[in-house]
Amino acid sequence: MMIRMLINKEISGVLHSFRFQILIVLTMLVFLIAGLFHVNSYHIRHEGDNLDLNKQALEIQEHATSLNRLATLKQHMVRKAKAGDVISLNGEKGLPDLIFYNAFVLGESGYKSEHRSHLFANNDLSNYKLNQITQFDWAFIAGVILSFFILVLTYDAFSGEKQAGTLKLQCAFPVSRMSLFIAKYLAFLLIITSVFILGIILNLITIKLASGFQAEIPSPLQIGGIMITYMIYFSFFILLGLWFSSKAGEPATSLAYSLFTWLILVFFLPSAMAMLAEKIHPIPSSFEHNQQSSATSGQVFDNAPPKAQSYGPPSSFGGKVYPHMELRKKAIDEMTTVMNEFNIKGFNDMYSQVKLGADLGKISPFVIIRSISERIAGNGLEDFYQDFNRVVIHRSMLLEFIEERDREDPESFHFVNSWHPETYSSAPVEADEIPIIEDADPKLGSALKDSVLDVGILIFFNLLVLVGAWSGFLRYDVR
Amino acid sequence: MLQAIDLSKRYEDDVLALDAVNLEIKEGEVFCLLGANGAGKTTTINLFLNFIDPSGGKVLINGIDATKDPLEAKKHVSYVSENVMLYGNFSARQNLDFFAKLGGKQNLSKEDYYRHMREVGLQEIAFEKKLKTFSKGMRQKVGLTIAIIKDATNILLDEPTSGLDPKAASELMQILHQQKNMGKSILMCTHDIFRAKAIADRVGIMKEGRLVMVRSREEFLEDDLERIYMDYMQEMSLPVE
Questions:
Q1: Please, what sign has the CA dihedral across residues A420, A423, A428, A430?
Q2: Is residue B219 situated within a structural domain?
Q3: Which of residues 159-218 of A touch B (CB under 8 A)?
Q4: Of these four, A307, A403, A432, B125, which has the most CB atoms within 10 Å of its CB?
């Protein structure tokens, strides 16, 4: 009863403050603009995806008339625009969401996309930066903007009341410090959570209206998962604000402490840990990777027996199988295998660096909440890894299909390789028999399961600041 | 009843703010503590309210040790500070409602609050106005109303007339007189010898943390309180009474 009354007073006090009124207007404005940005980005990505995928489906149909044409058809895997993108979009910006391949080669370079991060794009001279905050999504709004607002609201929770004399008067009543502390904490948690919920509702309404009800929105389960984890995140910053407020005698001092710590947690630590990951686990840029890949695979071919290298294409032999073709196929296969292995290693190195940066960054609650958001959105590090694996699996399935069908063709020379289509079957195949790449199916359950450790760390951080805030307020001189 | 028994307070910077003070204020008695700044008056009140812990001795409120059982002790004491601030964004009535509930008065109506505010002489037009628009005198009246509504058997006042105009100070004294007649024990720390003479049943003079003199109303009316006060202030050291 007492705590409820204290909470009501706190909420009423905050809602009446000019500071809060400014903050809520700004927050709603940010959510509104984010909704408009999302619709624009969604349309571009969604329409682009559909065009590309339709084009690819047509090309597969066309190439089904000839097995060897199908084998060398460039296909692509693209991370489709989806409902969860509004939660967190491409937080792991260094990892590709567009991968080109055919039945032989994985991760072909040389293509450009304005809206995609293309695996081993030739023009990419730098590699991944974990700390990039370029997306205007919920993870950014709640993780950066709302955490700042929380500190602006809480920095004088105790020091301001002390300065005003109201804390002293309250302490002259039979009310425990624990009640005062809990009431303030719960009041701020309720206020910020309500602001977040209102912002999300406004954001989703904006998305629906601005897209003419075309754009999908996250599922209630995704939103529920986000709400719970962000409440834990908000709780951390509320307790941090209360801690500084109970440590400083003057509100100005606690404001300075709060803002400095916010800068460290939200900007400095994620950047510093990403830079550290780059130092600990250096990887070449995509441009350098492509150069090394060509050189390494070229070296393999150069080391092949001279007969494999010097006989040239079969066309020079009237389209017939010529002497040493087997040697040449072997050299081409070895070169392709080395190139694929190099590209897989390149992706794994990129993934490892990103993961190291993300893991090191977990000393910052912001990095933790961003990772959780990405997983719930289906844009987590693990999702990128799965996407790459889907391509690896699809490529090998395609090659198996080509080789199997080639064996059935009595007119084929059966030298299936990536360079000389005339050395294997050109018979037609049924389009619906061609293996297709499986659609990614992000599962919220596994995303939440994968986030258990992160949530645990976030709760641990909460406990740390709770101890600081609580012990600080117990010793706080209310006079 | 308010009691201080061998009450001492030494701060972390080793300043001895209170030195074995003994004090007892009975029901229906007004005790005024006089003394210069830093004499230990506010420290005494802070100890009664458990804002700080004593270094020695104890404070009892209606026989309850305020250090050992502060929440129970605080049920029996009201407090009016030198500069009542309250919540500026709340109206006078909203402030009263909050602090009344904090003091355990859950069922007071708007009319009850209005009646109490009329009793302390607050103008009706101010009842629903935000506190941030109030003068110091008006805020002191709201602070006093909070103390009255709590209806505790003891009242602590720390320089309540400081900064008030003579009329407001006189009105405040009248209200305190009513409270005294209702059997409340009142401890008032003040520099205002004139008001102390008007209302006190006993006065005590504090100097450098010690209660150096206590006079009953008859004694200080017979003598010249101002002269006694000045004499004590000028003397460097005096035996404890």
A1: negative
A2: yes
A3: 164-166, 168-176
A4: A403
